[in-house]
Amino acid sequence: MASISTTPREQSVWQRITASLRKIAPIYIVLILLLIGIGTQNPTFLEPAGFLNLLRRAAPLMVLTAGQLFVIVTGGFDLSVGSIMSLTVIGAALLINNDPVNTWWVILVLLGIGVVVGLLNGFIVSYLNVPSLIATLGMLLTLRGAGLYWTGGAPRGYLTDNFRMFGRGWIEPFPFIERFPYAVLVLIIVSGVVIFLFTQTNLGRQLLAIGDNPRAARLAGIPVEKMRIVAFVLSAVTAVIAGILQGGFGGVNPEAGDGYELQAISAAVLGGAVLGGGRGSMPAAIAGALALEALFTLLNLLGLPKPLRDAVQGLIIIGAVAYGAYRSRRIR
């Protein structure tokens, strides 16, 4: 029986195809499988309106994960982002004071608060040499306590319609699909900005170099301390934006951002980021956040309870970190 042989050219083409497939982050395949799973349970989710609804719900986490990645690739964590989200919702409700005219300057103030929190986190980590886990955990507790004191422990105030439109509003009419969520528009703009900063400027390369080897980065002339501060500021600002989206979607809630810090870390790790720093992809991290939201949606459609969802999230973190460590050893 004659054996089937391939020419050198055919082998070369096949090698190029397989090499290209290896470069595709696994999270994209996972995301496609999850979307197919959702579609089998509820086909309307894969229609344009259903998919936009999924993106609208996932937008706060996707924006938050993008900011978290800037810190993770330097070898740190930002555990304060969930409390920043909660403080954003609380502060917006109290400062707007039921007057839609106040919305725009309040958003600027909230972004300013985010910058200040990011500067404090970055300064404490960079110049006081406090581990980011401890520094941002302290900031988490500080902001949570400040928010509870500000509100008296109960929801107060009201979010006006022109504030809430960012989370629940729609652009109508919109070509071909009738309406388009403002939250997805914000997501597209923020994603475009962070992907550009991470991939097309020295910022991303310098942050990756710091995470890979801080001493070598310093010897190469990279201002390590200042760049870490920039990473924390970007993380805090995206947390404010995520809080605005979450407040618009869910209304006034002092616990609006609880648990989001761990979800953002999970999503970044799902996207291939290494918790020790030095490696990460912004598009893949954002896709990881969408995959996490898709997973939660699928679990809800299957009727599984929230405690199981939390357990799955923990297993995802453990599995993704273990896989990342395994890949790092193979590369070395």
Provide a descriptive summary of the structure in words.
- 74% of the residues lie in helices and 3% in strands.
- It is mostly helical and 332 residues long.
- The chain has one domain: ABC transporter involved in vitamin B12 uptake, BtuC (Orthogonal Bundle), CATH 1.10.3470.
- It has a two-stranded antiparallel ribbon.
- Strand 1 and strand 2 (178-181) form a beta hairpin.
- It is globular.
Strand order of the largest sheet: 1-2
Sheet of most strands: 2 strands, antiparallel
> What is the N-to-C order of secondary-structure elements (H for helix, E for strand)?
HHHHHHHEEHHHHHHH
Question: Spans of 5+ residues with little confidence (pLDDT < 50)?
Answer: none
Q: Helical content, roughly? A: over 70%
**Count of helix runs:** 14
Overall form: globular
Count of individual domains = 1
Overall mean pLDDT stands at: 87
Instruction: Just name the CATH architecture.
Output: Orthogonal Bundle
- Based on CA atoms alone, the radius of gyration comes out at 21 Å
Work out the strand percent: under 5%
**CATH fold field value:** ABC transporter involved in vitamin B12 uptake, BtuC
Distance between the termini: 43 Å
By DSSP, the count of extended strands is: 2
Output the CATH class name. Answer: Mainly Alpha
Estimated structural class: mainly alpha
